[in-house]
Design a protein that fits this description.
Blueprint (H helix, E strand, L loop, with lengths): L2 H23 L18 H21 L1 E3 L11 H20 L9 E6 L2 E7 H25 L21
């Protein structure tokens, strides 16, 4: 599959996951940003921010060819609207980066670094491909945090127990 065709299909898949992800992020109250289910777990606010930022990784993978944990700038979310707007912006920029791909660009190498030290490298295409799975994974984790805090879990791929249209049967 050529790079432009892959990018178009990937942008379509990203868009398909955007609505469900927004439904989750819109329900995360800032007063629970510091909550975590276990001392080894990440805080709810950080998890929600991670979900909101994962589309930004696509832009970094394509345009910068690297992400360095030491220099990657996280947005500071103060409100639910901050999270939602950050996610929307990151999705928009990721789609722009995908639309701007040149043939052969996805064969170039992406580097994951910590303080300049390479931790991992692979073709950009493999990393772009894995980002949606990564976002969906953390969105699923986010829905568990939501359930544990009695935040209604929205429909993702079908009805949830919190949907008014849900009927057990």
């Amino acid at each position: 599959m050529n790079d432009q065709l892959f990018a178009a299909e990937f942008a379509k898949e990203l868009e398909a996951e955007t609505t469900s992800t927004l439904k989750c992020l819109e329900r995360i109250p800032p007063e629970l940003f510091g909550w975590k289910p276990h001392e080894k777990s990440m805080e709810l606010g950080y998890l929600a921010l991670l979900v909101a930022e994962i589309p930004m990784w696509i832009t970094h993978i394509i345009k910068k060819s690297e992400i360095d944990f030491a220099t990657f700038q996280h947005m500071k979310a103060e409100t639910t609207l901050d999270l939602v707007n950050h996610f929307k912006q990151n999705v928009s920029e990721a789609k722009d980066a995908l639309r701007g791909l040149k043939e052969g660009e996805l064969s170039e190498t992406f580097y994951l670094k910590a303080n300049g030290k390479v931790l991992f490298s692979s073709p950009k295409k493999e990393q772009v491909e894995s980002t949606i799975n990564h976002m969906v994974h953390h969105r699923g984790q986010l829905t568990v945090y939501m359930r544990l805090n009695d935040i209604p879990v929205p429909s993702i791929y079908g009805p949830s127990a919190d949907d008014k249209s849900f009927t057990a049967g």
